[in-house]
Amino acid sequence: MRRLLFLLPIILFALLISFLGWRLILIARGDTPDLVPSVMINKPAPEFDLPSLLADKPGLSSKNLQGKVTVINFFASWCVPCRAEHPLLAALKNKGVVLAGIAYKNKRVEAVEWLSKMGDPYNRIALDAEGRTAIDFGVYGVPETYVVDKQGIIRFKQTGPLTPEIVADELLPLLKELNQ
Amino acid sequence: MIPELGHFALILAFCVTLVQSVLPMIGASRRDRAIMDMARPAAIAQFLLIALAFGALIISYVMSDFSVLNVAENSHTSKPLLYKITGVWGNHEGSMLLWVFILAFYGMTVATFGRELPPLLRARTLSVQGMISCGFLAFILFTSNPFLRLNPAPLDGNGLNPILQDPGLAFHPPCLYLGYVGFSIVFSFAIAGLIEGRVDAAWARHVRPWALLAWSFLTLGIAMGSWWAYYTLGWGGWWYWDPVENASFMPWLAGTAFVHSLMVTEKRGSLKSWTVLLAIIAFSLSLLGTFLVRSGTLTSVHSFASDPARGVFILLLLTLAIGGSLIMYAVRAPSLINEDVFAPISREGALLINNLFLCTAAGTVLLGTLYPLIMDALDLGKISVGPPFFNIVFIPLMVPTIAVMAIGPMLQSKRGDLPVALGRLKLAFFAALAAALMTWLATGEATGPLWAAGGIGLATWLFAGTLLHLNERIFLFRIAFTDSLRRARNLPRPVYGMTLAHCGMAVLIIGITGSTAWKTEKIQTMHVNDTVDVAGYALTLKNVDDNVHGPNYIARRATFEATRRGKHVATMRPEKRLYDMPPLPTTDAAIHTNFLGDLYVVIGDDDGKGGYVTRLYYNPLVPWIFIGGVMMAAGGMLSLSGRR
Fold first, then answer.
1. Which is higher by pLDDT, B95 or B581?
2. Higher-confidence position of B42 and A158
């Protein structure tokens, strides 16, 4: 009996180590244990009405989301990863995707200047100067991209910049499915 | 050339550790003094070689040699010199090199300062230490080599995360590593003792200096890390129950239990197998922490770039090191016979109770840290338990621990008399009651929660109890003052060390209670010349300069004037910085302290209409947390410096 007590530590450790090992195998298979899924997925997009950023393009409100599949992209001129993903957005527009941009906590002048320099791929473009709408969407930081379906329900969220792989493997197939 | 030299030195060090882990062990089993004594030069050579490698990496950083991948990924020419040097350990590969550097440092101290150690114990200890080094050097050489070249070399590097560009990085990681890597030597002593089958009072006396050294550094390292988080993260918090913090806190809890249990082994020759187990656990938790942080199984604000391949390697190391030592424990520990028994109510009994509380606490922190993984594994959703869990389970465990901390030292060794001990603590009890009552009357429920009074009372109990214990040795006010003074002079230093460390704990509790219960926080948009009142201070936003240039950043600097009852107190200049490379923003809080509390000011974004978001805090008693931590570490050092 006393011997068994001395075996206890090694038994507990064996359990722990097999658990951690199994965990590592899962990670190697591509499971990310701490990726927090958005609580907003499969919930209606929040109510909002944002002014337009540019004089010649409409702004964005929750009413505009009804009836068509919209990709909403939060960006800012001060955000470097946004520069990295910007060409991908232009490519999405060329594929006929309805794209709405929301400039997050940006000065109007700077955002306009940035768009004129980088190219403006958005069908609608709005300014969320205080970041209130972003909070309602559950934005952690920029860039973030959401897909809202025809009923105005959020179906997808990308935290951080889009990558060619994510666009090809996740975003485009989802858009195709939602548009049917 | 220099990186190759470093790389080569590291490979040589690896070869030396092979010799160091095998030969002395063979020598010890054959009782061959000549082979056993190979351990000492090997440990010194290993240390010098790793120091050479470490120096080579530092030189590569200082010279901004971007043909070295690690330098290109983590440094930048515009970085100030201090951060070029400290940036060496601000990344995974470099910090692993620091890890083995400190491991080899401890091996070297045993080889050079351990002249009084019995040759068998020294040879085996150094051999085990060599095995640990061997494993980690292999890890560095095969999966995390800091000396890999990059061709073509970029014109400039990627820069260091701005949060790390702080003097804190110069002290916090080395100090922390001196702490938890220091437990490696205690672990090696434990394994050597198990192999020899001799864990007794002499063994405990030999281990004691290293155990106290490691514990003091770990305490100081955690306190400094907490202080750093407090002033750089800009949220006014000092502890986040983040996996990396837990990784250093778990070995601390186990290590604290160990240094106390070691005392019983040293004085009474009992609790042997328990002491050895704690030595193994303390270092195992350090290793586990290293695994969790670097394998990608958990991520946190501190996280290094993680990689499952590395995870597999560390897991293998963990299995060998911890698994091997626990099997050794299961086989050998039952034959360790305690020389003496003690009654449940005795100083030793109290130490054992505290040991159990500390271990339960360490287990709880481990559970909380792994909880998200377990929940996910059981498919119960991806959740994180966070501070609410830790606060709920941790505080009930700590309250009895603190209560016993004052009683334990008052009890007699071997067989104590509880009523007598409590009688001696009468004064402490009334002091605690008075402090709690006064706190409650002074603040009331309107300004703070009721438990705050309990926290202050508990801290007073510990503080007064510890001082009363000291007085049992010097009889102040009971005998002539000069006699007391003479007795005080003749008291061994460990008594003062314990008094200082336990008082430090009391100060820490006051700090924790005060900062949690009575914190004031105001978040608003302010325009220039607006004034906001925080906890009796009036803070006026004097001006905002949007274009302050630092060495490698541009900052928005606000100037606040703090006044109290119309009198100038301080001018405070919080900054929001945008670094060039990598272009990340940081907040640089302005803190004004008077040691009773901190005024803590953070400047945020502008609203585009001339207003700025500002966060103003009054954090009462926060400095006490860090003072308490430093007192505890100093207590450990003081105890270390004297002989029993």
1. B95
2. B42
Mean pLDDT taken over chain B: 88
Domain that residue B535 falls in:
520-620
The residue among B34, B217, B205, B17 whose CA lies nearest residue B126 is B17
Quick: pLDDT tens for B157-176: 888 878 788 888 889 999 99
A44 assigned to some structural domain: no
φ, ψ of residue B77 in degrees (nearest 5): -65, -30
With a cut of 60, say whether residue B606 has pLDDT above it: yes
With contact defined as beta carbons under 8 Å apart, do B524 and B473 qualify?
Answer: no
Spatial distance between the Cα atoms of B146 and B132, rounded to a whole number of angstroms? 19
- Give the per-residue pLDDT at B303: 43
Q: Could you tell me the pLDDT band of residue B323, with boundaries at 50, 70 and 90?
A: very high
Residues A70 and A121 reside in one and the same domain: yes
Cβ contact, residue pair A33, B605, below 8 Å? no
Residues A68 and A23 placed together within one structural domain of the fold:
no
Shared domain check, A31 and A3? yes
The answer to whether residue A129 is domain-embedded is yes
B11-35 residue pLDDT tens? 999 999 999 999 999 999 999 999 9
Cα(B515)–Cα(B393) distance, rounded to whole angstroms? 19
Average pLDDT over residues A105-125: 84
The answer to whether residue A43 sits within a structural domain is: no
Quick check: A15 contacting B, CB < 8 Å?
no
Same domain, A83 and A118: yes
- Rounded to an integer, the average pLDDT of B569-593 is 86
pLDDT at B546 over 80: yes
- Cβ-proximal residues to A8 (8 Å cutoff; 6+ apart), any chain: none
pLDDT digits (tens, 9 = 90+) for B221-269: 999 999 988 887 666 678 878 778 888 999 999 999 999 999 999 988 8
- Gyration radius (Cα) of chain B, Å: 26
Is A80 part of the contact surface with chain B (CB cutoff 8 Å)? yes
In a domain, B590, yes or no: yes
Name the residue facing B329 among A6, A105, A130 (closest C-beta).
Answer: A6
Domain that holds residue A70: 49-179
CA distance B370 to A20: 10
Q: Rounded to whole angstroms, what are the CA distances from B265 to B184, B188, B192, B260?
A: 19, 17, 16, 9
Residues in chain A with CB shorter than 8 Å from the CB of B373 are: 19, 23, 33
Enumerate residues 292 to 321 of chain B having a beta carbon within 8 A of any beta carbon in chain A: 295-299, 308, 311-312, 315, 318-319
Q: Tell whether B583 lies on the interface with A, counting CB pairs under 8 A.
A: yes
By C-alpha distance, the chain A residue nearest B612 is: A130
CATH of the domain at A137: 3.40.30.10
